[in-house]
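Supplementary Note 3. Input sequence used for the single-chain structure prediction.
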Amino acid sequence: LNSRFMNNRVPSNKRYQPTDYEHAANCATHALWVIPSLLGSSVLHFLSEDQWERVSAWLYGAGLTSLFLISTLFHTVTWKKSHLRSVEHCFHMCDRMVIYFFIAASYAPWLNLRELGPWTCHMRWLVWVMASVGTTYVFFFHERYKLMELICYTVMGVFPALVILGCELLVGGACYCLGMVFFKSDGLEPPMPSDYYAIYWYLYTPAANQMKTSR
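The predicted structure, written as discrete structure tokens, is reproduced below.
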């Protein structure tokens, strides 16, 4: 059973190799949300009443759609074109980089459309600086320090919320953090590799977004 649905656990300094079942599940669960993200983005843009709302809708929609689209492409390449190592490596880096920009984009409606105090105007650009720093980190240290990578994602996700303390945002952030635990839980008991946990994270992502965009 294990050999069909999952491979053996690998050391922390090596990359886990998914089975065909895991590849198929990853591709399906990521691709599932591409079209809804596009449609939702279009609706948000259509309902926008001014320039700031249109910009926020565009940023949020682009971040959400890019997250699922790039992840779908990465897992498809990993599954069907794994012999193209350089291409797979490039998509893997993009898959990690887009998470930073997705987090920044998910804060755009909160930071651009609400008056939340003097720190908000600074956080509007600081969150994108953090995303750029995270992207640079992935470019130079991809898969080298996994704990540091997890810390960067956590700080990026939590720090902007300090100026936007609200019930919906807190619940949405909790969904992200819970999903992130699954995303990084490779080889835990009961044995289930990170690729199945990653599926849970991507299923938590729409739930978190619903919490963060609800009024």
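The longest helix spans residues 51-80. Residues 187-204 have pLDDT under 50 and may be disordered.
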